[in-house]
Amino acid sequence: MTTEQPHEEQPHGEQPHEEQPHGGQPDERGAPVGRRVVLGTLGLGALGLVAAPALQRGLESFLGGAAGKDPTGLTGLLPNGGGFRYYSVTSSVPRKDASNYRLTIDGLVDRPTSYTLDELTALPQTRMVRDVQCVTGWRVPDTPFEGVRLSRLLDAAGVRPSAGAIRFTCFDGAYTESLTLDQARRADVLVALRMQDKDLSHSHGGPVRLYVAPMYFYKSAKWLSGITVTEKVRPGYWEERGYDVDAWVGRSNGRHDEPTA
């Protein structure tokens, strides 16, 4: 549950909440991956960041070839000087497309709704170009995302006065995230359908993911399947394992990165 999208980023996320499952027939729910395994693998990969450029290019080439044959997906956690890394908190993730994808909006709303991929695509789209910052340290500058503003979907569903937060669930069967209602209504929070001017690939959390531009990438949950309006914030997958619930870039998780938005 995105780098990643940790279900991306170490979070779900992705090359930074990203990750790419490999091999085998995907289960509807995979086995969660422990934070110790993820951070240990990232620590090993960090050796490549201080290597000479030629060695680093060789490492990237090796990892690219090995990832396709790695049934664990752990090679996808290693840092890559070229940009995103792919993370997931499950061993496999089902694949969805226009024929079977659904995004549900429920909870404290007057009009519970289910959107197909085609219905989301038909809505007005917003494009943003911002840096992506992973809580593990890497950053990808000037990354375009395009999708529907989350606030538009919430308004269409009719959020009730008692609501105060949003809980996001993902079709990997394990990853969750959350935002306060005020955070979710920001203009720079998208239900994203495109990234880097292409339809979202499966490994980047497609066909639909969350994109929270001003926060660390683990908040941008990959493989988004559910938006539930709740009374209070419920900590997400990585918040339950030590990450900050309010994940503003440069103002959380003990980091001082430059803001992305």
TrEMBL record:
Top-rank lineage group of the source organism: Bacteria
Domain Oxidoreductase molybdopterin-binding stretches: 92-238
Matches recorded under InterPro entries: OxRdtase_Mopterin-bd_dom, OxRdtase_Mopterin-bd_sf
Biased composition (Basic and acidic residues): 1-30
SUPFAM superfamilies (UniProt xref): Oxidoreductase molybdopterin-binding domain (SSF56524)
Region named Disordered: 1-32
Annotated protein name in UniProt: Molybdopterin-dependent oxidoreductase
Organism phylogeny: Bacteria, Bacillati, Actinomycetota, Actinomycetes, Kitasatosporales
